[in-house]
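step 3/5: co-fold with guanosine-5'-diphosphate
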Amino acid sequence: MAASSPLLVTAQVIPETPADSEAPAPGFDTRTARLEAEALHIMREVVAEFERPVLLFSGGKDSICLLRLAEKAFHPLKIPFPLLHVDTGHNFPEVIDYRDRRAAEIGARLVVRRVEDSIASGRAVERAGPNGSRNRLQTVTLLDALTEFRFDAAFGGARRDEEKARAKERIYSFRDSSGQWDPKNQRPELWNLYNGRHHPGEHIRVFPLSNWTELDVWHYIGRERLTIPSIYFAHERPVVERDGALMPVCDLVPARPGERVSLRRVRFRTVGDVTCTACVESDADSVAAIVAETGATRVTERGSRVDDRVGEAAMEERKREGYF
Amino acid sequence: MDLLRFSTAGSVDDGKSTLIGRLLHDAKGIFEDQLEAVRRASGDASAPDLALLTDGLRAEREQGITIDVAYRYFATPRRKFIIADTPGHEQYTRNMATGASTADASVILVDARKGLQPQSRRHTCIAHLLGIRHLVFAVNKMDLVGYDADRFAVLRDEILDLARRLGADVPVVIPVSALVGDHVVERGANMPWYAGPCLLEHLETLDPGTDTGDAFRYPVQLVLRGDGDFRGYAGTVAAGRVRPGDAVTVLPSGRTTTVKRIHTADGPLDEARPGQSVALQLTDELDVSRGDLLVAGALPRSARQIEATLVWMDDAPLVPGRPYLLKHTTRTVRATVTTVHGRTDVVTLDEQPAATLELNAIGRVTLACAQPLDLDPYTTHRITGGFILIDLESNATVAAGLVADSRPDDEGDVNSDGAPVDRAAREAQQGHRGGVLWLTGLPGTGKRALARELERRLFRRGVRVSVLDADTLRAGLSSDLGFTLEARTENLRRAAEIAKLLAATGQLVVADFVSPTAAQRAQVRAVIGDDDFIEVFVDGPREALAASDPHGLYLRARADEGDNDAAIDVPYERPCAADVVLDVSGVGIAEGAGELLERIGERGWLR
Ligand SMILES: Nc1nc2c(ncn2[C@@H]2O[C@H](COP(=O)(O)OP(=O)(O)O)[C@@H](O)[C@H]2O)c(=O)[nH]1
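step 4/5: write tokens
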């Protein structure tokens, strides 16, 4: 931990964006403003107290918000840490495109580590079968990358509203030297005082969006006028119905014998491993329409992730092992 | 739409999980797939067990209890709510405090049949202690007491009495049935005698207000400095408001300047308010860094000594005198608890004598910090009045601290009973004893290198240590002395007196002097006193060392410390009762220093 020495972040000054007359007034009593302020505070604490933070950036909507918050927390300076993407190889091309474009746009250093490589080197073993997603294998690649660069803090976009096990996770989530989370032994987190002390080899996952909900994320994307990968908006796509979910049909997810492929108007609520990310029928083709739809939806966004349904305790299991 | 954070608490089985489930369910805060999972788990699809909605972790399902703070979110058209759902068991009081630390309101469950249980009293006490002004009591299971208005009235009086004794604001007390749904979101028809608000209605309309005073408080998180002349002090407003042109004082330096601009990524602001994250630009180029506090209005109190209430949160009890890290705003310092004044029985609200605090205990203590902190009482400033203690070895957060209201007789850095800053206070604060390690032995035995190595190691452990040797003394204090035996004895007497003074201020002194005669060493011991004195005889095969002294240290040492005619064979009387005898010629300096460290530890000087 960098002690109390004056911390000078030196970087290039980015010219301030001219005030946008159409942008909503930055009032502070709105919930979005309060959630944003909390996240900025957290990010600044991490930069002040850790030696090598990194931000996990996948090009998904949560990490898009995270990146925007990082820009704002250190404005007018550049973001004082690199971005890391753990690439499952099971991607939506639009998302990877977006990832690279956005990183270049803000001049951030983007590190990509591939699950493919972990499999090739024998560090991770791929699971065959219908639920053979690479979500679980990501953990190996992630932990290896943290070790490789000696990152001691990793920002993630996880939210407590996503899932029951996440509901108990701290904003600073302590991980031991094998990346594991011990849900029974978490540090109490009082006020806005975060305890980031750790021994060498241990690290902290930091979740600035802990108190955000899916709707908050969409509000923020709207408020900040953030561009997002096109697959979040309604579009036509061949899909099959499988276990009550709509699965996109592509090379990695071929239709199974007996399944009927149909062309539907859909969008994705979450983007992860293509092989386990379902879409929903939707006409929402703008952020405003998505906000309206999200406000009215009756199904959680994790409900569209097949891997979480494997067992009631699926997420907790994965988290203990070091998954995000 | 705004935001309300509230915590929930209650004894096991009071129906907290059911109540939250009901709140989420009736306020449509539950998604279909969540409900579906609950239906599957309850085994009875027509009457899902709503409590299952909020019991997260597998360990909890196995034990059937909520073991940690779980956060839930729901929104109505009027407000977004963040619930910190805290566990009911007594052994999780710390989690209750954690949930309460950021809450605007607290909902406390009471079983209508059982009345106020010790655990509800404990929760009320903690919620009040942590500064939650809006206490809301849900008297649950009204269906099991036949919706009896009289029973409710009895409980209500009991609750109001408790609040009065705590000095809390008058709480709102609502009769509910979480199971049936009465007075949670819907009124229901079972209690026409109740005219007050339903739980959700009350939570939607109560004014969270601000619990901060007018005085501006702004802990600096970090300095943002760009290529140009941009320099902004990033931070979150802890209390009060600030506008460009306002005069502010930088603590601890005490310098004053004015705010030039309030920078944000969305453009400059006219005003920053509590909770807002900004970067302040100042008119003058001052040396401001992380840990500094910008203030306006009434100044906080600067003190090393803190009177506070601690909520102990670690399995290992508090060890008075042991150093911990204290994190207050953006500043972290070492601190020790010097006195435990007592422990609060949160059921009777009495204070009992206590020597330590165990897990979940709440007590009043005095702490001593290595550096002064700028403190406000917790009752007026949550952020600048709250702190945490961190264990230096395990890195665990072991306690939450609330700075006590300052009393009129609190003057500067003296505690309220006027205790002097004496040796005991110093030692308690720094976490180790003062004392003198007197290294005697012939020049060339490695004595000097040993002294320096020991100093380095102790210093790295945070011990206040210094080496005292002949060079230092002869360069100043003893520059008037020659090299006769008498003069050398006088030099040693001065050395002993200095070592004694330093030890009395809590320093650990490593004294490096040949001190060849038994009489000299006896005199030194008499000056310093047995308790503070460890005599170390550094032995070695002298001839061999003399020959293997390529840097000429031996000769210099000889001219300096030897006889005035520079005779190598000054009569050195080997000590026969030294506390430690060490020959480093075989084992090396590092090993020798390690050995000495151990001996110091054995004497209990390091704690
Ligand atoms: N009759 C009745 N039973 C209730 C009510 N609220 C909760 N219960 C029952 O009390 C028991 C404990 O409830 P639970 O919510 O698990 O309590 P917790 O330990 O405080 O979370 C369960 O069997 C609930 O069904 C109520 O308002 N009326």
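step 5/5: annotate
The pocket of guanosine-5'-diphosphate is lined by residues B 10, 12-18, 51, 88, 140-141, 143-144, 177-179 (CB under 6 Å).
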